[in-house]
Amino acid sequence: MILKEEKAIVVFSGGQDSTTCLFWAKEQFKEVEAVTFDYGQRHRLEIECAKEIAKEVGVKHHILDMSLLNQLAPNALTRDDIEVEEGKDGELPSTFVPGRNLLFLSFAGVLASQVGAKHIVTGVCETDFSGYPDCRDVFIKSLNVTMNLAMDDTFVIHTPLMWLTKAQTWELADKLGVLDFVRNNTLTCYNGIIADGCGECPACKLRKRGLDEYLRSRKGASHVRF
């Protein structure tokens, strides 16, 4: 559904997923603004990266102070002395920030109400997620209802990547004509390295595996003859 006359807020980190969502939103909505949350991230470059992308894409960019989250939820994304580790035996990864998406989306809703936007776009994904409970579809649907009740409004939270694999997310970026831009200008790496990253952290491995899978499928498709 194309909502050309509507306005949207994109929850924007400057990473692969949120940048793909930003371009998706620009295709869907008449007006788009982006919001980035400063919660004392381990790598401040994330915020600078988000600033640069928003400027290049030409969208109004809000940066909100969420430093309280850093105080409440020490983890590998906010502390240099905590190792980045994948979850083992059903445990959550050390990169999980309790309440992050709950707070980010709630504050995005408040911002949306101030700027006249009815749509909130986020890049959460249940298909290739890292075990984060606040990336699940059931959470998003629940929060959407709660947000509308709390503010007596009719916001819609959009999750264009919810059921996509990482390879399919790269495919979406390609269809939007921005695969190279997303690959070269976004910061997904837990070690703070732009573009293809360090290649060793869980985020980089997931990103590369998805990219390799998509490029193989695209190459295979190009060899099909009709």
TrEMBL record:
Q: Which GO BP terms sit in this record? A: tRNA queuosine(34) biosynthetic process
Q: So what family is this one in?
A: Belongs to the QueC family.
Q: Which reaction does it catalyse?
A: 7-carboxy-7-carbaguanine + NH4(+) + 2 ATP = 7-cyano-7-carbaguanine + 2 AMP + 2 diphosphate + 2 H(+)
Residues recorded as binding Zn(2+), renumbered to this chain, are 189, 198, 201, 204
UniProt-listed InterPro entries = QueC, Rossmann-like_a/b/a_fold
Gene Ontology MF terms: ATP binding; ligase activity, forming carbon-nitrogen bonds; zinc ion binding
The UniProt record lists the EC number as: 6.3.4.20
Q: In which pathway does it act?
A: Purine metabolism; 7-cyano-7-deazaguanine biosynthesis
What Pfam families would the database entry show?
A: QueC
Q: Cofactor comment in the record?
A: Binds 1 zinc ion per subunit.
- According to its UniProt entry, what is the function of this protein? Catalyzes the ATP-dependent conversion of 7-carboxy-7-deazaguanine (CDG) to 7-cyano-7-deazaguanine (preQ(0)).
Quaternary organization: Homodimer.
Q: Does the keyword Zinc apply?
A: yes
Cross-referenced Gene3D superfamilies: HUPs
Name of this chain's protein: 7-cyano-7-deazaguanine synthase
| Sorted UniProt keywords | ATP-binding, Ligase, Metal-binding, Nucleotide-binding, Queuosine biosynthesis, Zinc
The top EC class is ligase
NADP listed as a keyword: no
UniProt: ATP binding residues? 12-22
HAMAP family assigned to the protein according to its UniProt record, in alphabetical order: QueC
Its required cofactor(s), as named, are: Zn(2+)
